[in-house]
Structures are given as structure tokens and as C-alpha cells.
Structure prediction request, 608 residues.
Amino acid sequence: LLIYGFTQAVNQHSGRVAHLLVQWLPLALYPLLLVQAYGTEEKIAIRSLNLLKRTSGVEPVSLSPVRINLAWPYWGICLLAASVVPAAPSAWFYPCCSLLVCLALWGEKKPATSKSAWALVLIVVITAGFLGHIGLHRLHGKVEEQVTRLFEESGGGREDDPNRSRTAIGRIGSLKLSDRVVLRVSGSGLTLPLLLREASYTTFLDTAWVTREPAFQALHPKGDGTIWQLGQQAGAEKRIRITASRDGAQGLLAVPAGVTRITGLTADELRRNRLGTLAITAGPAVISYQAEYAPQSDTSGPPTDFDLQVPARLKPVLSQVVAELKLADRPSEEVASRLTGYFTGQFRYATVQVAREAGKEPLDDFLLKSKSGHCEYFATATVLLLRSAGIPARYATGYSVQEFSPLETVYIARQRHAHAWCQIFSNGAWHDLDTTPPDWYRQEQGAASRLRHFSDLANWIMFRFTIWKEQAHSGGLARYGLWLLVLILLYPVWKLLHSIRRTTVARETEPQTIPPPLPGHDSEWYLLEQELARNGLERQPWEPLAVWMDRIGETLPSHDSTAMLARIVELHYRYRFDPQGISQQEREALREEVRSSLPSLQTEQPVV
Prediction:
């Protein structure tokens, strides 16, 4: 039956092989239960279940076979098989299962046990089992969450796709990001918050933003190969230095709006698409570059028809909001101002989303009912509302720089500072428009881990070590410094191994100390004990000395021999265990009593 179930599962490619095997176990083992029930013995021999042992004859016939009662294992297998179902079990499964366990254990209760105490113990155990099940389920969720977070912090959770940005729009539950520092920014006269864009997108599909113009063009560096000209430089440009850790050979470059030139960037290739997204190929593990930018002169390409597209399924709700706010036929600056006031005044920021009405679009629920969401909701709604009002707009992703690190004396952006906002085309240029309520940053800070200061220190140490390692690969004094660091780290290991070896040698060479002899070890009683054993009156391992003497007194024919042994035992006890010991005269008496009794015991035969 097991082979049949396995082959059926494999042939049908059901992916439920293990489930089927467990479900069929009660039926497959039922014949064994029948053999035990109608056999001559109450239990079944284990060797009878093994065909090889039954035919080999290796096990001696004289040995009694080990037998087990199959009733209880079979009962447990039936419960296990009943719990393996494709769908979630009924709410009555655990109570009914507990009732069966109680009925089975009730028959094993000892008659002297109180029924009320027995019932109370069962109730406590069942309750503890139920609570333990809930606790393990929640622990599993926490462990899964932490593993996901570690995966994100190691770089596996970051998404550097210039052609597609998956959002969490419509996702139920909590949106969590890590405290890992991904960007470090320095410069004078920074205007906070500073938005550093990684990519822009044009088309909203279901819950993802994509770009219909994915073509990239390679840029050619100037000077020493670290200067990249992106556009015409304008007067009164700002300059900031950005340092970022890279997780792979390729990635997106975070830059401010209106960037015109990048200097100090070491890379094999820097490419740019028409939306202004910059992609870097190869380069060191830590890149540091200076960005020169003029916020009012964005170098992204002009708008196209893609920047005015609105999904047909969302047009009714978008038109309703546009009419409510009177956005149609208004200047772009006024529309941007009204949308900012609308979202910051009537909506709230939240990373936890509750279940919505079945069949309802997430953005419909966001705009008309919940009015609560994270930055991806606000950015997506703003872009689509602007387009519904006839104004070109794009969806942008990157980081919002607001936090200052006293440890590094620079501004930092963590992974949870990843942000989404809108780009609006106004007065012949693209401008950043962030309509997410400004208290989102404060909420994120309040939910941050209390141990982030320790993780920041560890992150900074690894960051500095990575830079140093890169310098070591490039030559110079840093290479010798790396070897010095290796020697410094190996010195404690050498000291530890040397200490262990010295301790081992000392233990092997030091003289072995002989423990002092126990009191009474030279008592002549032991000679008498050996003589009694030779006469067939040996002392049993479990037998106290007094009990042994009583038994010997019943077997020896002479009353004098019994009295003599009693005197010898009394002296031996005092000599062996009394802290005060015995006197010299008593010590001589013990020796003489044993000497005088040995000949009589050698000739005296015990009474059988």
C-alpha cells in the first residue's frame, strides 16, 4: 500500500508524497494490529517484524525476544494521519484529539489517584499544549521575519532594477525594513530632507511600476577616468559627497535631482537612460563620488505619452478626486500645492495595512476609505492624479536623507529610509514632489531597534575595514598595514595555543601525588572476610555488614565463633569509622582476635 501510494503521488506529480505516506500508514499497519489482537501473546516480538532476522538465524534461540505492544504506537499514528490534511484542520480537531488522549490515559490511572487531581492535571497539560502551539506558531513567524531581515541586510533583499519597481501596494500586514546604513552624505548647506533618486518609472501595472523606455547609453569619462559629465553646468551649483556600499557587480547610482557632473567615481562603465536613471558596472566594493547639481535643471528627458497614461480600472476614482479638488485646467504649481495640502492634511502615514473590502482596488480604498498608507501609496496616487489633471508625472524611488550620525559626523540613509515620490514636469523641467506626510520619518525613527547604536558601530567598523582592504589591494603602505593587522589578530591565537601546550606538558611531567590511605585500610578484619568467603560465606554486594554477621551466626555451629566475630566487627567499625579511632591496646586486641579466630574458621564447617 505504501509503495502504491508513493508511485501514485509520483505519477500524478502532486507534490504530496510525504502527506500521502502518512495518511496511508494506519491502513498499511492495520494487519500488524490484527496479528497482535488475535495472537496468543499480548505483545508482538520485534524480530518477527524483520524478515532478515527471521530467516538468518543469527539471533540465538535461547534469548527471549523483545516484545512491544503495538496498540499505543498505532493509536498515535492514527492521530498523526488524521492531522495531515491538505487544508487547515477544523477548530474542533484539537479539542477532539485532546478528548481521545484523556480517554486513553484515564484507563491507565492508578486506583489510588484522586480523580479530581487527575482531571486537573489533564486540563493543565491540554491548556499548556494549546498555548505552546500558539507560542511556537508566533515564534516561527518571528524567526522567519528575522531571517528575512538578515537576508535584506546582506543585500539579498535590495532591488536594483531600473526597468521595474515592485511595490507593497495591496499587501496586508506590516512593512518592515532594516536599520542597515546604505548611504553616507556630506556637504555644506544641505537642504533637508534631501532626496537621492536611484530610478524613475513611467507605467503603473497592477502593483508594480515599469519603464517603457529601458534603453541605456554608455557615458564616456573625462580626465583621469573618474569625471562623468551629465549635462550643461549652471551657476550656483551645489556639491555633495556620497559614499555607498555596493553588493554586486552592477547597481543603480543614487544622485540628487538636477545632477550635472559626477567626479571621483571609479567604474568600468556608467550608463544612463532617458529618464535620468544611472547604472554603474563593476568598480570597488565602496564607491565615493562628488555630485554637482542644480535642482531646477534636471537633465532627464522631456515627457512623452507614457507620462500621461492612467490605468483604465483606476480612472473613476481618480476622476472623482480630481473633480473634488478642482485640479483640472489649473497651473502645475497650483495643482502640486493642492495635492500636497490634500495628502498631508487628510491622510496619515502607516506601514501596517489592514484587510480591505473584497474585490476593491487598493488605491480606491486608500483614496476614499482608509486614507492611510506608506510612501508608495502617496507617490503612486500623486503621479496618477497629476496625469488625470493633464500634467506629466513620473514615479521615482531612492532614499530620503535626514538623519545625522554623530559617530561618523555625516548624514546617513538607512535601508528603512528607502523612499518613493513623484516627479512633476513644470515650467519646462522635472521637479521632485513628495506628498507623503512629513511625520513618516519620525514614525520610522520611533519604530527603530533600540540596539541600532551597536549595529551602527559594527556597520561603521566593517565599512572602514572594507575601504582599507580596497586600499590594500591597490598597493602602498596599506598593504603592509593589512599584514600587520593579520599578525595582531594571530598573536592572541598563538598565545592561547602556547598556553594550552604549556599546561599540557606541565600536567604530563609533574609527579603523580598518591592520595593518603583511608583510615582502617590495614585492618585485619579483611583477612577474616577473605577466609569466610572461601568457606562459602561471602558477603553480597548489597548486604550491610551487620546483616551479614547475623546470617553467619545462623550458619556457624559454634556459639563462641559467633561471639568472637561480633567483637572483631565492633573493633573494626571503630577503627575504620570512629573519628577518635581506637587505643593502642584495642588495636592489639583486634590483631590478636583475628589471629586466634582464623584457625578455628578454617576447620569449622558451616551448617547447611
